[in-house]
Design a protein that fits this description.
It contains 12 helices and no strands. It is mostly helical.
Length: 241
């Protein structure tokens, strides 16, 4: 192979752009089970003011982490592996391997977590309180997702647009109901929590997983397009640096 062919940039065989590969999976994970099934408990237990502080603090941590992630990603050629790749190439393979195992387990548990929440929501819609029914629905959801994973990322990308449309409809429905049922006196009464307050940090721990959804976009690094493979600098560039 000639020297010119070795230095020629090669295009990564990815198919997803910024919207489909980064924004959409991150957005869908953020607007997930915590927001729809646990945020009401957080607000009811802490009161509106403390709930807003919890949301602001959690988002501040998420935004600072995103800034750090962007700074690292702009200094290297990011290949497949997402969080693990960035950590292993920044802190070393030892740290990357140790944290990568935890990330793998977290991703595996999160699938069951979201599917169980989906089963509880569906069983609640039909008025069935049996926990076994929710588990059966969750098992069916996992089987359905397994088929999409087997078919490839393109099929999952098409399906996530359907999920996004459903989420937007749910949010619009919530906002419409909130404006029509708004009462100033009720909101003032809910600014503070109940008589027996719940520990602030427990409520923060319950809500915090809702803001970690941006890592789903990072995990899609191996499927993104318009990325050039890293090429070693020439001797002249090394001299200038």
């Amino acid at each position: 192979m000639s020297e010119d062919s070795e230095k020629k940039p090669q295009v990564q065989a990815g198919t997803m752009g910024t919207f489909a590969g980064v924004f959409t999976p991150s957005f869908l994970t953020i607007l997930g089970i915590i927001l729809f099934m646990r945020l009401g408990y957080v607000v009811g237990s802490a009161g509106l003011m403390k709930a807003l502080i919890i949301i602001a603090l959690a988002n501040a941590i998420s935004v600072l982490t995103t800034f750090s992630l962007s700074a690292i990603a702009t200094n290297m050629r990011v290949k497949g592996g997402g969080d693990y790749y960035l950590i292993s190439r920044t802190l070393g393979i030892e740290f990357g391997g140790a944290i990568g195992i935890v990330l793998f387990l977290a991703q595996s548990v999160s699938v069951a977590f979201y599917c169980i929440g989906f089963g509880e929501a569906v069983s609640g819609i039909f008025g069935i309180t049996s926990g076994l029914y929710a588990q059966v629905i969750a098992a069916g959801a996992i089987s359905f997702l397994f088929v999409f994973s087997w078919l490839g990322a393109d099929w999952a990308t098409r399906f996530q647009y359907v999920v996004m449309a459903i989420l937007f409809s749910a949010i619009l429905s919530f906002m419409a109901g909130g404006f029509s049922q708004f009462h100033r006196a009720l909101m003032s009464a809910n600014l503070s929590g109940p008589g027996v307050p719940v520990n602030f940090w427990i409520l923060f721990a319950i809500f915090f997983p809702a803001v970690t959804g941006f890592t789903q976009g990072v995990s899609m690094s191996g499927d993104l397009k318009d990325c050039l493979l890293y090429t070693s600098p020439s001797p002249r560039d090394r001299t200038r640096s």
